[in-house]
């Protein structure tokens, strides 16, 4: 009995010591004038992951995915199922009427709303108001009507002050009207372009002094995906680069896996209040972007070990649990 009591006391001591160490580390990173260190980001990521015990459904996150079309039903599925597999409780896919039954057939775990092409402002506003984070773009398409609708949805999210992740065709819509994201409010938006998408955005942003990614204001950041991932923030100390993990295989759908994962991590980081000052939202964006990039690269690496050149995005989905466990638990 005495030995067990000592073990319990020692375990409590280790937990408290670890919590204090993380708090100290986080405070240092928030105040640091240097670029964030990747090992520190990994430790901080572990601290934002919510406990499973004592939680109700929805407390670990409600994510909205706006995307999908009759041509592209896989992209919103990959984003949505990734958000779930990382740990969000509920994921809603808002898509077109003809894409909805196809996406529903992929998984019974997703909640699918089929009214994107029958736009109802009141209905969509109600759904968006319930979301912790919104992802715009996977498989959305590039029709003029869809682009116009995407601009309206971004403005709605801006009014609701919703954390936003913009990827794929959502980035195309931003390229068509870069001012639509101008001065997006806290907790902000994260753009996730690949090299080609980033080049297009750089050319579209009006010439001005300063970095191109600062055009949208201090609460909009960029995760520039590539052989080396580069995170760009208006706060220099929150920027980072990483080429850890991954493989040479670039499977279609990998970016959607990242955007869905990012939504879940973004919500967790914001709710953890990991930086208790006026830079809290920007710091949460940086940590969430790192976590999503790290996880996606790890999934890619593990799937490539098994499948090599024949690896596809569905193979990466199978690795989310193992990658999450290896990297963050």
TrEMBL record:
* Cross-referenced PROSITE patterns: YJEF_C_1, YJEF_C_3
Q: Which InterPro entries match?
A: Carbohydrate_kinase_pred_CS, CARKD
Q: Which cofactors, if any, are listed as required?
A: Mg(2+)
- Biological process GO annotation list? metabolite repair; nicotinamide nucleotide metabolic process
EC number annotated for this UniProt entry: 4.2.1.93
Instruction: Write the record's keywords in alphabetical order, separated by commas.
Output: ATP-binding, Lyase, NAD, Nucleotide-binding, Phosphoprotein, Signal
| Residues annotated for ATP binding in this entry | 246-255
**Which positions in this protein are listed as binding (6S)-NADPHX?**
139, 194-200, 256
- Asked whether the keyword Lyase is assigned, the reply is yes
Is Manganese found in the keyword set?
no
- Write out the GO MF terms: ATP binding; ATP-dependent NAD(P)H-hydrate dehydratase activity
Catalytic activity reported: (6S)-NADPHX + ATP = ADP + phosphate + NADPH + H(+); (6S)-NADHX + ATP = ADP + phosphate + NADH + H(+)
One Pfam family in the UniProt entry: Carb_kinase
Residue span, YjeF C-terminal domain: 40-327
Signal peptide feature range:
1-21
* Membership in a protein family: Belongs to the NnrD/CARKD family.
Q: What does this protein do?
A: Catalyzes the dehydration of the S-form of NAD(P)HX at the expense of ATP, which is converted to ADP. Together with NAD(P)HX epimerase, which catalyzes the epimerization of the S- and R-forms, the enzyme allows the repair of both epimers of NAD(P)HX, a damaged form of NAD(P)H that is a result of enzymatic or heat-dependent hydration.
What is this protein's record name? Answer: ATP-dependent (S)-NAD(P)H-hydrate dehydratase
Give the source species.
Parnassius apollo (Apollo butterfly)
